[in-house]
Amino acid sequence: MLTRLKAKSDGKLAKQLCRVVLDQFDKQYSKELGDSWSTVRDVLVSPSLWQYAVLFNRFNYPFELEKDLQLRGYHTILPGSLPYYPKSMKCYLSRSPDRMPSERHQTGSLKKYYLLNAASLLPVLALELSDGETVLDLCAAPGGKSVALLQCASPGYLLCNEYDSLRVRWLRQTLESFIPQPLINVIKVSESDGREMGDAQPETFDKVLVDAPCSNDRSWLFSSDSQKAAYRLHQRSNLPVLQVELLRSAIKALRPGGLLVYSTCTLSRAENQDVISEILTSNSTIVPVDISGLARTCSQDFTFAPTNQKCSLLVIPEKGKAWGPMFIAKLKKNRGYRKMVK
Questions:
Q1: pTM surpassing 0.85?
Q2: Residue 303 to residue 124: CA distance in whole angstroms
C-alpha cells in the first residue's frame, strides 16, 4: 500500500511541480540559504517525503488513537522540556512520512485530532498563552493555529480575524469542528482588514499572533497555473509592505507589556528577517524577545537555519524532519529604552 501511495504521489509531483516557481526559488534560496538549499529543495519538491503531525483535541480526547500511535512509534513534541509548554496540549509526530486520514466535518460532533505541519505549533508555543488572557489571531484562516491556541489554555476572549470572505467560512467550520459550545462563546470571528485592527481596538490584547499572508513556498511550488504563478512571483515584492502594515496594526492593538508573535511559511528573507528589522528600527515601543531557548529545546524534532536575530527562528525541512518552512519572531510591547528581553 505504501509503495502504491508513493508511486501515486510521485506521479502527481511530475504533473504539478511548477517550473517557473522552482527556478525563482533556486536563484533566491541558493543565495539566502547556501548549501542548505539543496537539502530543503529535495523535501519541498517531493510530497512523498512530507510529514503530518497529529494534534489531539483536548475537548474530545482520542485515548484509543493515542495508544495506537504510541505502538506505531509516534512520540510527543517537546515532552515537558519547555518551561511554558502547556500540559493540556498533546501533539504526536513520526519520523516517517506517515499520514493519518483527515476526519470529516459533522455538525454537532467534535473532531478528535487536527493534522498539521508540526512547525506551525512553534508560533503558538512562543506566545506563552495563559488562562483568562485576551488574544488576537489577526490572520486566522484556516484556523489551525486558533485551534492550537485553545489546546494550550482557555482565553478570556479570543478574536479570530480573517479578511478573506471565502477563508472565513473555512475558519468558522474549523472552530465549530474542534471547540465546544461554552468556549465558542468567548471566541469571536471577524472579517476586518487586519491593517485597521490597531486603530479599531487600540491596546486591547495581551497576546497577538500575526501569521501573515506570505509566499507559501510549498503551495507555490505546486501551482497548477504557470501564468498565475508567474504573476504571483511578479507581485511578491509587495508582500513585505503588507506584512509590515499588519505588524504595525498588531502593535497598536497590543497592550503595553503584551507579547506579539509574527510567523510565515516562507524561507524568504525579505518577508522574514527584513520585516522584523524594519519594525524594530521604526517602532520605539517594541523590544525583541530572545527565542533561542525554544530552538535549543526542540532541536531533536526540528532543523533550524541561522537568522542572525536572537528574536527569530527559521525552521527548514530535511528528510525525516520535514517540518517547515516556518519563520517565527517574538516581540514585546514596552515603553522606554529598548533592550533584548530574556
A1: yes
A2: 18
